[in-house]
Amino acid sequence: MNFSSKLLEDAVAEFAKLPGVGQKTALRLVLHLLNQDKSDVEKFSASISKLRNEIQFCEVCLNISDHTICQICASPKRDHSVICVVEDTRDVMAIENTNQYNGVYHVLGGLISPMDGIGPSDLQVDSLVERLKNDEVKEIIFALSATMEGDTTIFYLHKRLKSFDITISTIARGIAFGGELEYVDEITLGRSITTRVPYTNSLSK
Amino acid sequence: MNFSSKLLEDAVAEFAKLPGVGQKTALRLVLHLLNQDKSDVEKFSASISKLRNEIQFCEVCLNISDHTICQICASPKRDHSVICVVEDTRDVMAIENTNQYNGVYHVLGGLISPMDGIGPSDLQVDSLVERLKNDEVKEIIFALSATMEGDTTIFYLHKRLKSFDITISTIARGIAFGGELEYVDEITLGRSITTRVPYTNSLSK
């Protein structure tokens, strides 16, 4: 693109580095910001810089937090004997939004993916093992993506954790609620038949 | 959404103000920035704030520029007797990318749109009239969107400018090059039949 201004070109280049943002979208966003009040743009710019410089990670579950211990880990109302292992903050938010879980979390910070050069040492596995040495923990729930990377991570963690006297479970996989059978992909449908559950059990819960 | 951090929530809220960016996309972008080096995020944040504070608009054509007169207006190689009237900077860039135009521009900064409360006084019309008082200008080309707003703006500008002794033209409308007839909408196809051009003329140019 032929930019009429170096400042504009720089800002567009920075925006275009964001995931899923191309040159055209970046230009649209930058021109939108140019039309805003200076104070609004300053607020936008400051919020990002402040976030990156002041953000902390909870010392217990490693979730993003404003304090050394996050709200969930600090809450006495939560069940600290159940730990839900997730990939990142987004998953914590997604599970919190269901209002179905009252335990605590452990944020791995990624999934094992040899293709991307991410091994177990890049994830927060040791800190999870440390937490399990506390007698309080009774159950670990793996809430990881149903992908090759998620399955590899579960397989690895299961091997590392099976020596502990705790229940290890994964979230249920199958057809989605409200999903029509004809649109479900073959793998999910096939697996949901082989992993079928007794009728009363599945609906009464 | 339940955010685990106020800083995160603020940054997501700022990103979600951008056009076409919802809460989920905003969160994805913010988490991406959190994973970057502090210096990179600082660069991102600074480029935006610098752009907003230091950007200038060319005194002649009102295009975004780093100087008081933009490169195009300052260039002796351009034909200053032809002015192409466009809506905004993006249109200048689009036309520059065609390498088919050697004149100069005039950026209106918008289109007349009573629905959005944008009238002629919100656009750079007076400065265009001032430019025409210079004897040098021989032709005005309207390169505005083929929408109701674009047509309204052309109608208004034509009324304002017709007293000057200059050629007033608009860019050609019709079916796009490479477009298959069966996929062209009725209005474009209908108009392209009524505004048909002599055969030799259309292909030799």
UniProtKB/TrEMBL annotation, chains A, B:
Occurrences of domain Toprim (ranges): 81-176
Entry keywords, A to Z: DNA damage, DNA recombination, DNA repair, Metal-binding, Zinc, Zinc-finger
Any GO MF annotation of the entry: zinc ion binding
Biological process (GO), any one: DNA recombination
C4-type ZnF: 58-73
PANTHER family registered for this protein in UniProt: RECOMBINATION PROTEIN RECR (PTHR30446)
Annotated function: May play a role in DNA repair. It seems to be involved in an RecBC-independent recombinational process of DNA repair. It may act with RecF and RecO.
Family to which the UniProt record says this protein belongs: Belongs to the RecR family.
Name of the molecule in the record: Recombination protein RecR
Species of the source: Mucilaginibacter frigoritolerans
Lineage: Bacteria, Pseudomonadati, Bacteroidota, Sphingobacteriia, Sphingobacteriales
Gene that produces this protein: recR
